UniProtKB/TrEMBL annotation:
Organism of origin: Peptoclostridium acidaminophilum DSM 3953
Lineage: Bacteria, Bacillati, Bacillota, Clostridia, Peptostreptococcales
Molecular function, one GO term: ATP binding
CDD domains (UniProt xref): ABC1_ADCK3-like
Domain Protein kinase per the UniProt entry, residue ranges: 86-402
Protein name: ABC-1 domain protein
Family: Belongs to the protein kinase superfamily. ADCK protein kinase family.
Record SUPFAM superfamilies: Protein kinase-like (PK-like) (SSF56112)
Domain of life: Bacteria
């Protein structure tokens, strides 16, 4: 994707019509990742556009069957196929960087084989460098662009996140980190419903990942068919809240396609992205959410300021606090269908920044998580008053703060 394609992409995102997802996919991996990033920007895009762009997380061009076998031959060492009874050509799922195929080992275990799409890394890096040059030129002539939108910062975030995804060894390492956190904290926090698929490390490498097949259904499928129990969704909040607020290390891409329900067990899959947040943010954001759940807006305003790397005071703070109270004037007792938590959080961060606060980059993956979770609740139980329902976990999470 060159700069002309980038300009056309941005115009399509901000246009009156919904963006053409098929066209975006044809522009390459960088275009898809930019589209996915804008799907989270409900603070300045309408909800319909964001929801439409969010389809880029699960609806991507599939590798043709004839190429699947050539990919396996290209990526796997000699004798690798001898471990399998069969590998299905038709994919179970497809995402922006690869896709998953069901298979069976000769030892009888049902597994899935994840493959990275060939040459994506090379073309992605080339597109990123081209776009960086264009943005540097644009910022030189319009320096305000850097302060208002931080396009290079966003691009660097996309670059790092995507390159991590393109190395499947990172997915294995992140899975192990999350499982170790669970193991270390089971005595003080109930994480018994959380599970991780077994990984066959001896059969995996940078471009191929072999893991246990989970005979369950994704939250995405259950939501689309209206079959996800709201209590299961609240338990996801409970588990994810522990990782975010108590540990500061969490699944960085917790969209509904990456959560599989099998009986009473909840499996985290596709752990290529790992969210990390500093102590100041995780503690401050927890205090913010705690106060928000009880509608203590004055304390919410203070918590937001205290979690900023650069805080404000005096008249600036008074003016900010007054605007904060007005922002949340319509929030008390409202359901997720009446007031979007994601939009509120986006508007809240925007208010803080416009008032003079400066936040660490770790805020982005948390807002991303909130958008996913908020969207799941909207599909599952639109009449839910989410913040009040979260009160049942607040005491437990508060008791486990480091």
């Amino acid at each position: 994707m060159n700069w002309v394609g980038f300009v056309r992409l941005i115009k399509s995102i901000y246009g009156k019509k919904l963006p053409d997802l098929e066209w975006i996919e044809k522009q390459g991996l960088l275009a898809v990742k930019i589209g996915q990033t804008f799907a989270l920007r409900i603070d300045f895009l309408n909800e319909e556009t964001c929801a439409h762009l969010s389809r880029l997380y699960s609806s991507n061009t599939k590798i043709p069957p004839e190429k699947v076998n050539s990919l396996i031959n290209y990526y796997s060492p000699a004798g690798w196929r001898d471990n399998f009874e069969y590998i299905e050509e038709k994919p179970l799922a497809s995402a922006s960087v690869g896709q998953v195929h069901r298979a069976r080992l000769k030892t009888g275990e049902e597994v899935v084989v994840k493959l990275v799409k060939k040459d994506f890394k090379k073309s992605f890096k080339k597109d990123v460098e081209s776009l960086k040059s264009f943005l540097k030129t644009a910022i030189f002539f319009y320096p305000k662009l850097d302060k208002v939108a931080d396009p290079l910062g966003i691009l660097k975030n996309i670059e790092k996140y995507t390159l991590d995804e393109l190395n499947l060894l990172n997915e294995i390492a992140h899975r192990d980190i999350l499982e170790e956190i669970k193991s270390d904290n089971m005595a003080r926090h109930d994480l018994s419903r959380l599970k991780f698929p077994k990984v066959y490390k001896e059969l995996s490498n940078e471009n191929i990942l072999v893991s246990e097949f989970i005979e369950g259904e994704t939250f995405d499928k259950l939501l689309s068919e209206g079959r996800l129990d709201y209590e299961n969704l609240l338990e996801l909040f409970h588990i994810h809240g522990f990782y975010v607020f108590n540990v500061g290390t969490f699944h960085g891409d917790i969209h509904p396609g990456n959560i599989i329900l099998k009986g009473n067990d909840m499996y985290f899959v596709d752990t290529g992205a790992l969210g990390l947040v500093g102590t100041k943010i995780k503690k401050g954001l927890f205090r913010f959410m705690e106060n928000l759940s009880f509608y203590n807006y004055g304390e919410c305003a203070r918590s937001l300021n205290e979690m900023a790397d650069v805080e404000i005071s005096g008249e600036k703070y008074d003016d900010y606090r007054e605007k904060f109270m007005k922002l949340y004037a319509d929030f008390t007792g409202k359901s997720v269908s009446q007031v979007s938590l994601t939009r509120k959080m986006m508007d809240t961060i925007k208010l803080g920044v416009n008032s003079g606060m400066v936040f660490e980059k770790g805020m982005y993956p948390i807002i991303k998580s909130l958008m996913y979770l908020d969207g799941m609740v909207l599909k599952c139980n639109p009449n839910a008053v989410l913040m009040e329902d979260m009160r049942q976990f607040i005491g437990e999470l508060k008791g486990q703060e480091d």
